[in-house]
Amino acid sequence: MRKRQAKKRPLLPDPRFNDQLVTRFVNMMMWDGKKSVAFKVFYDAIDIVEAKKGDAEKTALDTWKDALSNVMPHVEVRSRRVGGATFQIPMQIRPDRKVSTAMKWLISYSRKRNEKSMAQRLASEIIAAAKEEGAAVKKRVDTHKMAEANKAFSHFRF
């Protein structure tokens, strides 16, 4: 790296929940710079989650945060060349990257679902992830399994 690292820009909290994490999620979900559309999709999904789950003591935003924490990976494998061979080395993930990865997985697997609108897809994936099921959680489990399988190469860590 030649130049200095880019500094983190502060995110404005979202208008409805006053939460920066929501804004970060919406920014990742947004296509073609259409933030208002992305916010509408997210808020509609949260409303659907609120309607579907009958849990009175937990808000829909708490359910979304639970889903996000259930999708977060703790270890991942990184490729490293050692003496002409490439090894998959399990490594701990930085907290910031954990959140980013969880958001990416939740959004991408929501997009692959079969419901009619994106809000319904996102709501279904959030509910599934909160119950520790669904494609995004399966991705986290697979990532952890791969790291566990390659634990023998962890001494190559840099």
From TrEMBL:
InterPro entries: Ribosomal_uS7, Ribosomal_uS7_bac/org-type, Ribosomal_uS7_CS, Ribosomal_uS7_dom, Ribosomal_uS7_dom_sf. GO terms for molecular function: rRNA binding; structural constituent of ribosome; tRNA binding. The keyword rRNA-binding applies. Keywords: Ribonucleoprotein, Ribosomal protein, RNA-binding, rRNA-binding, tRNA-binding. One of its GO terms (cellular component) is small ribosomal subunit. The keyword Cell division does not apply. Pfam families: Ribosomal_S7. Part of the 30S ribosomal subunit. Contacts proteins S9 and S11. One of the primary rRNA binding proteins, it binds directly to 16S rRNA where it nucleates assembly of the head domain of the 30S subunit. Is located at the subunit interface close to the decoding center, probably blocks exit of the E-site tRNA. This is Small ribosomal subunit protein uS7. It comes from Confluentibacter flavum.
